[in-house]
Amino acid sequence: MLKAALEREGLDGLVAVDSAGTTGYEAGRPIDPRAARRLAATQLASELHIAREWLPEWFRERDLILALDIDHYAWLSEAAPDQESLGKIRMLRSFDPAMAGKDLLDQGIEDPWYGGHADFDAVWHQIHAALPGIVEHVKAAVSSDAELQRQGS
Q1: What range(s) does the Phosphotyrosine protein phosphatase I domain occupy (predicted)?
Q2: pTM score, two decimals?
């Protein structure tokens, strides 16, 4: 969803989007068929998605690290090797204007795994509401990086 939103804004060649879990439990498995169904309903392909586990070196390599729930946020925060890495971690829904500034517990997205199609639809809407804010954040970061490069030239 985020990759498609960034592509629509012409940012696809400037940023990369990927995902990983905080555990290796699902590593190597394809996307949940219910999630795939929900994404397909909006013409988003997911056939190539394979779950993988977070790698510690990604703290250094990523500029923004989005957590979906408070457990992910806590795990990432505890695993962060330094303050710079810690500053990259945000709750995904903190970018939703309706959720910004709320307690981190309230910003969490419930795992729809144990639910049905309606739960996957609800998660889709929660993520969708945060996308414009994430896109604006990325645009600002790209613009800032470009300005720093111009100044350094």
Answers
A1: 1-137
A2: 0.92
